[in-house]
Amino acid sequence: MQGLSSTYLSILVLHGPNLNLLGQREPGIYGALTLAEINQILEDEGEKVQAKIYPIQSNHEGALVDAIHEALGQHHGILINAGAYTHTSVALRDALAAVNLPTVEVHLSNIYRREEFRHHSYIAPVVIGQISGFGVRSYTLGLQALVYHIRKL
Known about the structure:
Shape: globular
Strand order of the largest sheet: 2-1-3-4-5
Strand content: 15-25%
Distance between the termini: 16 Å
Low-confidence stretches: none
């Protein structure tokens, strides 16, 4: 991976639709932290586990698919909160399967305690694991698990 020391991993962090509104969007479900604050927490956690974080947020499915494609050869793994696309996007699922990078799916809320349509993830079958329901800790736990998985390979 270009430009990184051999000890640091490069992790692409993908945030899907509406996550740009964190902090103001349904704080009872998603918490009060903004996306910028979550990214900072991830950067801080990345320092602890020797991983450089590259966050991208998009409300557009194709932009997320493009970012996944571009991750091949650029990043060691992907941490993804696909938002509503989790439950609808075969395109994201296929992109993750195609690049075959270690990926962890995360969600701020427990998707299995919410509406029935949120109980299905198209992404889950092609990732190494899924963490949901722990707020911002879902992201940090997901990052820790991803780094551990990559380093043990």
